[in-house]
Design brief:
Length: about 425
């Protein structure tokens, strides 16, 4: 298993491709985006992640990583393209079907196909079905238990689902250290994938079937979503009952079996905002809690906007400084960011001046730049010119702000950073 083809050079695909190249595998990184291919081949990273530029440079300089538009024959194919939801929350398998088609022509007996994309339950079996249709000469085993004998030797390929679990901001460390789950379409597939991951993963590896592996990944992110929703609901309750939510969470967490997460202005990112819906769409009549949690977290930005408007109503022409735009602390990633949604809502109608402070980006994103009353400024300017200061993201850069210097200004801290 010396040659690996990684399909989709997003934050998981690119990191995995680099790690494998540095470990000595010959890696063909494939992406449909010309910019991604070009930047990668120049030895730079198109994703924002600590040490990623250095990592891509090292991988490309080793001569082991080459990016291209089309896959080449390989021993292992790793699929890391995203599965998205349409506006109406319908699962869209277009990208994963398209990449499966591009590798189908290259497959030979003995190849291992790994799906790392976070997938609704049943996706890996769909991939098996497409491969059977497009490559009837190959044996693609049906789903069977992980202790079934190999009855497909000779013309078979191996197929497994191995979801990633890395936390953006710590990808390079967690890619190696985290425990992994490998779901095989059958036991030989699980064992073959285990042999492969053992070459670069130091965490424990657990084997199971593909459906269990798919659901486990979705459950992990749904667990986090439900727990954040609990914290967010608590913040609404505390406001109504005139108590301090941060104090309540801190004190409740002194109980040995209680661990409440932190309330905030909502949940963003690629994964937690999407994965629970994959479960809901597979079992709509069994997912009341997961669905409600999603709705609570989705409604948080509107709730915060209303609180800001109430506070801003005390000023004639308010200047509102919003600290942070990213979806989480110490990152410049804006995908589904609640902070962006809040600033965008405030920008509508040109009712006030908004100063956005986001040390991790250089220009405002498209959805904000169109509003003439939103400006990106540095922290000092934002603090000095504000009537109302709203902390939206708990970046380290905001930790040491001396609020006493700005004593007369109104403050809304949605993250409890300055409590
Ligand atoms: N958040 C809160 N309160 C908290 C914790 C988080 O409001 O107490 C918010 C964050 O501000 C952010 C959102 O939740 O907007 C999600 O951030 P996160 O750090 O919890 O998670 P992600 O989306 O960056 O990464 C998650 C991780 N999943 C889990 O922790 C269960 C990661 O391990 C997964 O690999 C990743 O999703 C993924 O790719 O699925």
């Amino acid at each position: 298993m010396k040659k690996v083809c990684v399909l989709g050079l997003g934050y998981i695909g690119l990191s995995t491709a680099c790690l494998l190249a540095i470990e000595g595998f010959k890696v063909n990184g494939v992406d449909i985006n010309a910019k991604v291919v070009e930047i990668t081949n120049l030895g730079s990273s198109h994703i924002q992640e600590p040490k990623m530029d250095f990592f891509v440079e090292k991988a490309v300089q080793s001569g082991n990583l080459v990016a291209s538009f089309e896959p080449e024959p390989a021993d292992v194919f790793i699929i890391t393209v995203p599965i998205s939801l349409t506006q109406g929350r319908v699962i869209d398998l277009t990208s994963i079907k398209a990449v499966t088609r591009t590798i189908a022509t290259h497959l030979i007996p003995g190849n291992l196909v790994i799906v790392e994309s976070t997938s609704p339950v049943g996706t890996t079996e769909k991939i098996a079905g497409w491969l059977r249709e497009w490559r009837p000469d190959l044996a693609v085993p049906p789903l069977s238990s992980v202790d079934s004998p190999d009855t497909y030797t000779g013309s078979r390929i191996y197929l497994a689902h191995c979801p990633e679990r890395v936390l953006p901001g710590q990808i390079l460390k967690e890619l190696v250290d985290n425990d992994r789950i490998i779901g095989g379409i059958d036991e030989p597939s699980a064992l073959k994938a285990q042999m492969f991951y053992k070459k670069f993963v130091q965490g424990g590896i657990s084997l199971t079937d593909v459906r269990t592996a798919e659901l486990t990944k979705l459950v992990e992110n749904s667990f986090r979503d439900v727990n954040i929703a609990f914290a967010n609901e608590l913040s609404l309750i505390c406001e109504k009952l005139d108590t301090n939510v941060w104090e309540v969470v801190k004190l409740a967490n002194r109980h040995p079996r209680v661990n409440i997460l932190q309330p905030g202005p909502g949940v963003g990112g690629h994964c937690i905002t999407r994965d629970p819906w994959f479960i809901v769409s597979s079992a709509p009549d069994k997912t009341r809690l997961i669905c409600t949690a999603r709705i609570i977290n989705n409604n948080m930005p509107d709730y915060i906007v209303n609180r800001i408007k109430e506070m801003a109503a005390h000023f004639k022409h308010p200047v509102i400084t919003c600290l942070g735009l990213s979806y989480k602390a110490d990152s410049g990633e804006l995908h589904e960011s609640p902070a962006v949604k809040i600033v965008q809502q405030l920008g509508k109608g040109n009712m006030c001046q908004i100063l956005a402070v986001e040390p991790h980006i250089k220009t405002l994103p498209d959805e904000l730049i169109k509003y003439g009353n939103i400006k990106l400024v540095d922290l000092t300017t934002g603090m000095e010119q504000a009537d109302l200061i709203v902390l939206l993201v708990n970046h380290r850069a905001f930790m040491n702000v001396d609020l006493e210097m700005y004593g007369e200004k109104a403050v809304l801290d949605t993250r409890g950073m300055w409590r």
